[in-house]
Amino acid sequence: MTRIAVVGGGAWGTALADLLARKGAFESVTLWAREPEVVDGINREHLNPVFLPGAALDQRLRASGDLGETVRGADVVVSSAPSHVVREVMGRVGAALSRGTLVVSVSKGLEPERLTTLSCVLGEVLPRGVPIAVLSGPSFAQEVFQQQPTAVVAAAQDHGVARQVQQVFSTNYFRVYSHTDVLGVELGGALKNVVALAAGILEGLGLGHNTRAALLTRGLAEITRLGVALGAEPATFAGLAGMGDLILTATGPLSRNRSLGVELAHGTALADALAGRASVAEGVNTARAAVTLGARHGVELPIAGQVADVLFGGKPPRQAVADLMERELKAEQWSGAGSGR
Q1: Is 192 designated active site?
Q2: What CATH architecture is 3-180?
Q3: What is the pLDDT of residues 121-170, one digit of tens each?
Q4: Which residue pairs, CB below 8 angstroms and at least 24 apart, start in 210-217?
Q5: Which of 125, 260, 293, 310 has the fewest beta carbons closer than 10 A?
Q6: How confident is the model over 78-94, as pLDDT tens digits?
Q7: How many CA atoms lie within 13 A of 41 on its CB side?
Q8: In the chain, where are the structural domains located?
Q9: Which of 256, 237, 12, 51 is nearest to 135 (CA)?
């Protein structure tokens, strides 16, 4: 039978590990966590008290603080560490992988230093030939744990690998579609966090539904422009990993990025807002990365630019909204071509 290792004990990694354990179709499901209190909580009380408090996890799920022991002999390794530590964590995994082990990246972000997707990071640090896939889409960890109907997308360059991921993760409440546009699926999952930060800022300022609708529409256009410039397929951004995840993260009350934006609009300093959080708000690093990538590829990203100015330049949120509204008037165009609208 199949052995599964989940690397990263945050809310999302825990929810997926619980889902896989509940399927009862695998020999074992083991979750690696850096935090001893997470490992002890899962093994002793079947709880993750730090990242998914109050969620009674499947009793078949085991946790370990030994990364090598967790992945050694695993048939499927799920990479769920925060984006900024994926290289360091998964770089320690390679030597313990068995030949043919399937690696599935479920983290949503870009590597901050190299401005690259996480599947590319895995391709660099794992042994050559290891099949790599990504899993993304609109999926709050808490609602997946509650077994609420959820649809996501698995992508791999080899469609057969994507279909394998479908079989591993699909349940009667967790539906997995397949795709081959790995880049588009990853970029959608990363860049929507920047727009979600903007949505939280609008909410914190007391702005209404007109403003939110405009933000989501133009935000998706912005994400699509950058994605196509980087080589993704434009249609991908109309799917679960693009529009679906954007709607969820920009409007859902469980969104870490949206709630961070609300705090910023209320006048909380970024450092103070981040200090009170156990989980990572990926949109912070992604905002800076998106602006840099846009400048590098000649793609105008007005929303991401304003979010970055609020995050890192001390710009008042209300002024950022005003500057967006007072930009040069343009025709609306929905395409992946050109420098932006």
Answers
A1: yes
A2: 3-Layer(aba) Sandwich (3.40)
A3: 999 999 999 999 999 999 999 999 999 999 999 999 999 999 999 999 99
A4: 211/321, 212/250, 212/251, 215/250, 215/303, 216/246, 216/247, 216/250
A5: 125
A6: 999 999 999 999 999 98
A7: 21
A8: 3-180, 183-325
A9: 12
